[in-house]
Amino acid sequence: MTDEIARNAGTATDFTLRLNRSASRTAPWTARQNEILSDAAFETARATIASWPGYAVTPLHALPGRAAELGIASLAYKDEAGRFGLGSFKALGGAYAVARLLQREVETALGNPVPMSEIVSGARDVSRITVCCATDGNHGRSVAWGAQAFGARCVIFIHATVSEARKAAIEAYGAEVRRTAGNYDDSVREAQETAMKEEWFVVSDTSYPGYMEIPKDVMQGYELMAAEAFDQLGTPPTHVFLQTGVGGMAAAVAAQAKRRWGDARPTIVLCDPDQSACWLESIRAGVPTAVEGDLDTMMAGLACGEVSALAWEVLETHADAVMALPDAAAFREMRALADPLPGDPAIIAGESAVAGLAGLAAAIKHPEARAALGLGPDSRALVFGTEGNTDPELYERIIAGELT
Ligand SMILES: Cc1ncc(COP(=O)(O)O)c(C=O)c1O
Hints:
Helix content is 43%, strand content 15%. It is of the alpha/beta class and 404 residues long. The chain has 2 domains: 4-89 and 214-399, Rossmann fold (3-Layer(aba) Sandwich), CATH 3.40.50; 90-211, Rossmann fold (3-Layer(aba) Sandwich). The relative contact order is 0.18. It binds pyridoxal-5'-phosphate (PLP). Pyridoxal-5'-phosphate (PLP) binds at residues 88, 90, 138-139, 205, 243-250, 301-302, 352-353, 386-387.
């Protein structure tokens, strides 16, 4: 087949699928990839996060009704809506990176090792340290929550269109929230410049040359979501569909899958919003490639114009395909989850939670895409519902059918 399928461009069912010829299940897990995400680093993350008050494994729902409708053997949905009461999987990453940063800073100041338990319990005075980041919601909530729990100061930068509800949710964790002019990238710049001036620490979920350590910690935290889901599944999945913003979450899931199952890892498909399809463009070009424009998607958590450098290093050889999908496809999945088929539970999923599921639904209905991905009656699909209704007002409007 051709490397790329574009279906009904311009209509509500439109999608683009591109195969990634640089990736395969048998591609090795390289030493470099193991420097980014390893079993040892993951076990440290797991032990730390599992020690936080309120830690609980999130549910993995079986959706037999939907699986039957799609014509596959099973569909599992890992539901992150309840993660630490923050509403998204991002609770795992930003807060863990804050803990690691504080540990490093205290160790440097004292000149000797400090156990993570002393950071997490708040036994060390870190109130002189300020952490900051730019966010469109979920990552900032996680960083603010971590800073508050461990006793550090926190300033979060949001751009013009981040809703008041998301702002208030971050403030509820004791952070100062500053609204900046312009778009997300402008808020990133403002956070960096202010941090330089004030000697604060940027805790970003995306990496670029010269800024790798903290985003690596963020991804190590995300791996716990994947590890839990894989432990919960009776039988390994054949396909995993993953929504992508900067790609940190997808890289963490792919890494956990490859290290756990080797060449028997599932087929991994990335799912981008069509208005911010930096993974589609990068896989097309074979190198990280930015998309320009206003990134005008309602999937706010996925509205990124550039891939994370570290995520690229993992997904370049371990993401088998990439799809781009319109907002309408995500809205349909949110409504379908809220009003399920007989036998399936009702699930609350936010607008950035379901691009993976939308990708699966789109691909399976298209004969060429289905064949290209090897989808069929024996397929066992896994998706990650990465947030609940983190913006309740918007959620209600989508469920009511006001946005289509
Ligand atoms: C709910 C949700 N899902 C998925 C993602 C994508 O994660 P990443 O940016 O690591 O690709 C985000 C990012 O903010 C998010 O908020």
